[in-house]
Amino acid sequence: MRGRYSSMMTEGVPADEAQAIPELPTTAWAVLGMLSHAEELSGYDLKKWADWSLQFFYWSPSFSQIYAELKRLEKHGYATSRTVVSEDGMRGKRMYAITESGREAASHWVNHSPVEAPVLKHSVMLRAWLGHLAEPERMREILTQHIEYTETMRRRALADAEGADVNPDWAYPSAVLRWCVKHYEAEKEFAEDLLADMDKLARQRSRRKPAKRQNSSDSH
Fold it and tell me: What digits encode the pLDDT tens for the residues 79-123?
């Protein structure tokens, strides 16, 4: 069962208003939140924004998921769309904008919905936890690749944070991206410590194997 930092915060919120806000997937609120940062965005723009920011701390939804949520948001009146035709008149691009009710709903979600505690699902840690079943060299390879991955993500988050600094409207995303930079710095340090522990355990494991073989031969 997932933990929560707080229960439903409904103080100061009329009961009919709280009930009027539909229960939408978190991804829908994320898409609506991205729309709140601009006047209009296309589905392609939203995917780029998700890859630029959301992926570092939540996830980056696919194009199909983004369009499914846009359709859901339009159904609830939280977003509108229009087709913009290119200058040659041959191609049309659908642009989406948040409505006033959509902005109010997003604000209500941020301020009053339950805050779910983050869930850590770490496949590298799971394999290290099962290290007694792993080949030492394979475990070292997995951890080394993870360390390289965290450094790549740290550099990307830093570049995106610095890019966001040029626009005052992106102050909050920039602050979160800098948190992500620190997260990946810490993750890299933790992985390096774990690698050192795995190497130590591998040396201990190798020293025990000959003794086991010797005991087996003595029994015969």
Answer: 999 999 877 767 789 999 999 999 999 999 999 999 989 989 999
Q: Which residues contact 37 (CB under 8 A, 6 or more apart)?
A: 49, 169, 170, 173
Other CB atoms within 10 Å distance of the CB of residue 67: 17
Find the Cα–Cα–Cα–Cα dihedral 192, 193, 196, 201, rounded to 10°. Answer: -130
Tokens matching residue 197:
């522990």
Tell me the whole-structure pTM to 2 decimals.
0.81
Cβ–Cβ < 8 Å for 114, 8: yes
Beta bridge partners of 92: 85
175 contacts: CB under 8 Å, gap ≥ 6: none
d(CA 194, CA 21): 45
Report CA dihedral (109, 112, 113, 115) to the nearest 10 degrees: 110
